[in-house]
Design brief:
The protein is an alpha+beta fold and 281 residues long. The chain has 8 helices and 15 strands. It binds pyridoxal-5'-phosphate.
Amino acid sequence: MVVLYDDQIIEREQARIDPEDRAYQFGDGVYEVIRVYYGQPFYMKEHLARLQRSATEIRMNLPYPLEQLEQRLLQLLQRSGLQEGNLYIQISRGTAPRNHAFPSNARPLTLAYTQPSPRPVKELSEGVSAITTEDIRWLRCDIKSLNLLGAVLAKQKAVDHGSKEAILVRDGIITEGSSTNIFIVKDGVLWTHPANHLILHGITRQITLQIADELQIPVKKQPFSKEELFTADECFLTSTTMEICPIIQIDGKPVKSGTPGPITRQLQQAFEKQIALLQSR
Ligand code: PLP
């Protein structure tokens, strides 16, 4: 398996992480996951723009220009031969003697690799179950940071309950999922939390909002409560790896009839059309 290490593509076995790498000690870095269909990256520029923004928000300079990173990632993709799966990229603030404050002269370390992974077709067709749990994360969830313990603990709680996702609740308001954005449909209107510091500004969330606009589905980018979640007509999650996936059960209770709803299906179909476009490239 080949990996991108700084700006070189090397064998995984040759990549060396220093014990004092700040990603390892502090989770001090940022990351992205880009979906690959038919050997092509999906919305790569949007992901790289978010990576740049995350780095800026934690006051970290990228080690080399974004255009160079894009070229290296395309080379990595080609070398790996990946057809369907994920492209993972992380940038650590670098290696320095352990001290919380920023090091003065560490070089940020880029690491990227591909992971084969089929589309979650069963979940997309049948829907998934979720639980609700308290959102215990920090107040800068808009930064795609390597600090993921809040998400890890929430996701494990979902898994412990035999569910796919944990829907996070902060002060009675639904923010997002542990690794997804959450939407509900109520009386024909699509609701999702506004893109502020309490959620990750998901690329798939953004694509979904564009599709909704094209399909003339009314949208409210407004917070909704746990009570509104439980009385929703439809519910779905969005993410790079899960696409637009129906949620049919929450905390053991069915969402409406307990089957994927018509607006969710409409959005899924339009999303699939975008994927299919990559096939002919
Ligand atoms: N929210 C959180 C907390 C996430 O970690 C993710 C993805 O990993 C998302 C939302 C979905 O974002 P995207 O659609 O860009 O994958």
